[in-house]
Every structure is written in C-alpha cells, then in structure tokens.
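User: Could you check the structure of this?
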Amino acid sequence: MQAPSEVTAPSAPTARMTGAEALGATEALAAFAASIELDRVPAHVVERTKDLVLDHLGVSLYGTVLPWTRMVRDFVIAEGGAPQSSIYASQHVPMRAAALVNGAAAHAIELDDTHDESLSHPGSVVIPAALAVAEHLDRSGSDFLAAVIAGYDAQCRVGSAIGHDLLSRGFHPPSTCGVYGATAAAGRLLDFDTSTMVSAIGSATSMISGTLQFTEDPAGTMIKRLHTGLPAERGVMSALLAQKGFLGPRQGVEGRYGFARVFTGRQDLDRITSELGQRFEVERITVKLYACCKLFHSMLEAIGNCRDERAFDAEDVVAIEPFGPRLMIDTHMEYRPASTMAAQYSLPYACAAAIVLDPASPESFDVDVLGRRDVLRIADLVQPVIDKDLEALFPRKMGGGVRIRLRDGTELTSTVIESRSSPDRPIGRADVQHKFAQLTSGLMSEAHQREIMRAVAALDSAASMRSLTALLRDLPLSRAVA
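Assistant: Sure, the predicted structure tokens are below.
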C-alpha cells in the first residue's frame, strides 16, 4: 500500500469548482465516490472498515435464521433469476435480490452498526450492496473496501445534513438516506465516472421510501427489517440502470425537487461536502453492543454502572427513572410490546431487559419472553424524564442515564454521555471478533469462524471477493439454512 494521502475529487474547470465544497452536493458525492482508491486512504481507516465488515457479517448471519429474513429470502428464491450473487447461508440470486435479503438480515436483530449523527445504519445497507456487486463482477478486496468507504460517506453525510428533520416528519433515515450509500458503493465497483455516478444518484432519489409508522404498532413491525434491504436493492438497481445509460436528474440531493428540500425543506447542505475525502465517516460509527435501539445504549450502560456500585436483584427495585434526550422517550414508551421489534424499540422493556435479562443478547427480545411477569413488573416501574443537558448534546452525543430506587431506600444514579463502542469510546478488533464469534457460534464451527475472520482481515490484499462469499454461502451447519 502506498503512503496515505487525501482522496480528492477529479479536477474540473476552475470556473466550476475549487474543491468539494464548491460543487453541488450530488456532484461532490459522485466525484468522491467515483475517484476513491484504497491506496489513498489512511491505513487506520482501512482497518476500521474491515472491522465494520466483520461486525456486519456476524449480525447478518445470526439474522439469516429469523422468520422475517426467511420470508424475504423465500420470496426472492421463488422469483428466480440469474445466479449472480450469494444470499448469506443460502444460494446465488440476482445481485439486487442478494442485496435485499442480506440487507434485511443485517437489520434483523438491532445489532447492526449505527452512525449517530445521521441516526442511520450504514453497514446494513452499504455492505450488502457492495458485496453483491463485487461478487458478481469478481472485484478485488481493495475495490470492495474502497466502495464500502465511499458508501458510508454518502449515506452518513446526507443523513447528517437532514436526518433529524427526517425523523420529525416521520421518515426513517436508513431507508431514505441509505439509497445514496448503496448507489455510491455499487457505482464505484462498476467503475463509474462522475457523470454516470451523478445520474445513478439522481435516479436513486426517486426510489426513496420508509416511514416510522412501525413505531405506532406493537405487533406489525416486520417492515422495519426491510428498511435496510430496500435501499440496498434500489442502490444496486440505480447503478445498474445508469451503467446502461439510463439518465437521472443531476441534482438529486439538493435540487428544487431533490431529496433534501422535498423531504425536509432543508437547503443548507454544507455537512455533505465539508472535508469530503479528508475525513471518513467509517471513523464515526458505533458497533452496537445491545440488541435494541441505539438511543437506549447509554442509559443501559448507566444501569450497569449502578449495579457495579451496589449489587441488587430485580426484586429490590421499586422505581426506575431513565433520563435522556427527548427522542429517547418519544415513540418508545410501549409498555406491552407484542413483537420482537416493538420490544427492541421499547424504553420500558429495554430497562427491564437490563435488570432481569441480558440486553446484549437478541434472545432477551424474543416473543416468548415478552410476557414474563418479572420482566413486565420492572417495565411498569419505568417513568422517564427528558434531560435538558443531554437534549442539548443530541445527536452529536447520544447520552442517557438512570435513577434507580431500591426497596431499602437506596438511590443509585449514573449518567453516560457516550456509550462504550461509540466513536469516542471505540472497541478494538478483538472485541469485534468476540461479538462475531458469539453471534455465529450456533451456525458454524470455530474453524469456519476463524476462516471468515482471517478472510476479512486480509481483504485489502484479496484478489477476489468470491473466496469470502463462498465462506458466507456454504456454511457447514444446517441450522443456518433451515
């Protein structure tokens, strides 16, 4: 690998630009994604990207066996089509179909990575799209990693510029902003020039969807799983159409009827182009340690801190007051969730899981434990409050805290400004590998786990992505394809 240097957009007439900030948002993103090369990316960014790929694979492989993923997989397989790219733990299907299924699997257990500022899940959109295209085209590991980095930047930068406004209007950021990440990654692997990438991004803008109505229904929530699969699929489709010469509008993000203005009314999009090619969004990603909404993670860590200060059992607890930013509470107060998704989005249930169960385990949110009396008793004690100081920090910091009163009168309090594994408190490769091993232990042998970990760690020198996708497709244990 050559010495790292800044990744810059291709040169253009000086009357039009002097850098990324001088371009419109769409063209700046397109120029960056089309030009990025891995040997011009700092080594630590490359290593971080490999860790995010491994984290994605562990979460997704666990998700392959869950009912909602299997429904999407069976639907895709029944439709048939060209055998181009691998569904994890299954078979070859068309590229965009693989991106759809694997994207849904990645979001199946709420343990996929997050980008706090954009309120988004880039890994579960960008990586499935990039892997599907890279496998079919037999691209190298370095091309794949460059595409992933470009995709994270596209999704996270657009989401950071407008994500909070999207939420206030009832749109889900991963399912809306995600299409830009998938398109950028797919276009990079298809060797797009800037103009073709611009066209692909413009077409992708017309494929955006995904509302927060699932938060209003304690049972009908499977659709959230598709909120990463759909943008992954549509990004691949937008890129493939652009490759054939299909033209999209040139200001898909910032135009008069572009994404930002139509969905949020926003016109100030400097966040998209600021330091583009110099600062990479993969460095601002949280690897999730709890199988529930990221907004709860600091509060859940605070519960653990209280327990470290004074050991107590669930029977000792008589009052729980979680506190944090408004969004931690709004739309998250379902006391009787009727589905796994609703439980993962429920603040009362998450508090109960932290005290009675283990919020790091997806099994704590299984339907068969939602009605346990000891869990519901704790959930009913939860009375949250909005904390003005933590609200002021949001979404730059997703802080949270808790006050717990015990039966003997003891009061315990803890505040966490940023949870462990967030960007300012990152975990290392060994921790990511441990999470991968824990999630996949029932799906494959330890030897197969080690093969996947070794393959991911060596991606930047891999001549072909197909050696990795073969490991992901041909799992040795039948449970993975049940």
